[in-house]
Amino acid sequence: MAENGTDCDQRRVRMSKEQHNGNFTDSSMLSERKRREREERLNIVLWKKPLVTLQYFCLETLINLKEWTIKLWRRRGVLACVLLALAVLTAMYYIEGAHQQYVRYMEKKFFWCAYWVGLGILSSVGLGTGLHTFLLYLGPHIASVTLAAYECNSVNFPEPPYPDQIICPDEETTEGSISLWAIISKVRLEACMWGAGTAIGELPPYFMARAARLSGAEPDDEEYQEFEEMLEHAETAQDFASRAKLAVQNLVQKVGFFGILACASIPNPLFDLAGITCGHFLVPFWTFFGATLIGKAVIKMHIQKLFVIITFSKHIVEQMVALIGAIPSIGPSLQKPFQEYLEAQRIKLHHKSDGAVPQGENWLSWMFEKLVIVMVCYFILSIINSMAQSYAKRLQQKMYSEEKTK
């Protein structure tokens, strides 16, 4: 009996080992398959497979439109209320009356705010790669207002949205009368709206991770899968990037609101991980979004504004141009276009709207315009590639599901 019991235990151990080895083999095969599929998807880009990429992009667009239409139909009551409100606003917009001055004011403010909120969303929403709208739009806008304020010794030029160019007011002002706080106040609205847009753009990772945790299903997102792998191998993490991600995750998880606020208040490329962490651990929506909104639209935005305003203050700019001229050999040739650009900006600030606009274009402004065009084109290409790769992932998952059912 004892021998039979020993044999039975040995057989159970052998079966357990075989089952474990089988699961390990299946897991390694699945990981290898995912790696190969990911490499295949990354090759679906316009410069390698243009026809396939465009075809997959169009098909993914149609699928998304169908899904959004179904979601809108399910919420047709809310949609009907929104359409009714739009109809009332449209009627008020076109009916003449004393309210028109308020309507025009609200229209101007609404579109100005929507413009900067939209740019903020584009900067952080993660469609392929974010469009760096701070460097391309908000930063130059703050810089131009700063240069104008120091040149005009006033910030009493028109309220935003500005006309084609800022014109110095006719009022008499004394040299050095402009203050740093006055410039901050002048650009506060557009800066805070841009920051609010970046906070809204951080919501998709949060909702994706939250929905995956509540449903128990594996999400169709590689960042979330990397996050789960990071949690599994937290104790063995060695490289700096993994330790930095774990530090963000621990800060958000343990400190809560103030941890999220700290991560959102500084330039932080790992903040997407904070959104995924909050969603995964079911942090309340208003705790996450409130901390993100305060951090990005108030604290971080004022830090960035101060940096740009100080960098483009009159004496700093003059010192930088002088330092460029001090570079041996090539200094004077590099200094000249910067001086011409600054002089052209000063002339534009002082000419009246009915006067002749100075003609001519500096190569610095020409280069910046071309840089903006290149960045926007790359952003559009990244969206096309990203959506095409999403459709390729749909096909791979469908094929995997069919293989499992056989």
TrEMBL record:
Transmembrane segments: 77-95, 115-138, 251-267, 273-294, 306-327, 371-392
Keyword Oxidoreductase among record annotations: no
Keyword terms, alphabetized: Membrane, Transmembrane, Transmembrane helix
Signal peptide: none
Keyword Transmembrane helix: yes
Protein name listed in UniProt: VMP1 protein
